[in-house]
Design a protein that fits this description.
two-stranded parallel ribbon; 2 domains; Arc Repressor Mutant, subunit A; 6 helices; Ribosomal protein L11, N-terminal domain; alpha+beta; 39% helix; 5 strands
Length: 158
Amino acid sequence: MESRVKVMVEGGKANPGPPLGPALGPLGVNVAQVVAKINEATSSFTGMKVPVTVVVKKKTKEFSIEVGSPPTAALIKKELGLEKGAKTAGKEVVGNLSLAQVVKIAKLKLGTSLAKGLKSAVKEVLGTCVSLGVTVEGKSPKEVQKEIDEGKHDEELR
């Protein structure tokens, strides 16, 4: 029998306080060890909230950590160094990504995304760019989505 504890932690900054400590304490695992392992696994996501699942085997008190992927919007904002997106998406532009940056974000999301392939994942990221007020290669993300549908960027999406 195993227990799963799902939490959102800031990358590399988990601590034994709530929500982790109270959830893990009754399971009998060493909370400090769990926190250290989470911080090690999420250190590359510093400054972003990351979904983490701690799986504890009740009999042996062994645990494993499953780290999810931060939300797409958080990855875009980190890539651009933004605090937040546009107040009025569609009218305000807060940043510009290259197609290579969009592809990089899409590859990070590929495992947790519902997209069937890289092309679909890139289009999902572009959709998030629309709502954040971010352009891609100086163009509207919707325009870039149309170009992808037309096959103009097939070389970059391999």
